[in-house]
Amino acid sequence: MKRFLTLTILSLCSLVGYTQAAEVEMADTMRANGKIYVVVGIILIVLLGFIAYLFMLDRKLNRLEKEYKK
Q1: Residue 62: pLDDT over 80
Q2: How many Å from the N-terminal Cα to the C-terminal Cα in the chain?
Q3: What CA–CA distance (Å, rounded) separates 37 from 43?
Q4: Per UniProt, which keywords does this protein have (predicted)?
Q5: Domain residue spans in the chain?
Q6: Any residues with CB less than 8 A from the CB of 27 and at least 6 apart, and which?
Q7: Number of neighbouring beta carbons within 10 Å of residue 5
Q8: What is the pLDDT of residues 21-57, one digit of tens each?
């Protein structure tokens, strides 16, 4: 078990080192063209919509729970 854990940790460390060495050309290109702000904006809009949906769903569930308790 100890050997397996050591092997797993070493594998993950080498994987992290490999991914840090790779350059992300797409992000550099989008940043240079100014389109990265469009991507960030769309992600924020989707995230805010999802949060609003969850908030409204929570309110509806609370209302149904109160009606069920009566």
Answers
A1: yes
A2: 55
A3: 10
A4: Membrane, Signal, Transmembrane, Transmembrane helix
A5: 25-70
A6: 36
A7: 9
A8: 566 677 778 778 888 889 899 999 999 999 999 999 9
Tokens of 57: 């769903």
Quickly tell me which residue has 């904006």 as its tokens.
41
Structure tokens at 66: 């109160």
Among residues 61, 55, 54, the alpha carbon closest in space to that of 69 is found at: 61
H/E stretch holding 56 reads helix 36-69
| Token pair belonging to 54 | 């969850």
Q: In the numeric block, which tokens belong to residue 55?
A: 């908030």
CA nearest neighbour of 45 among 53, 34, 33: 53
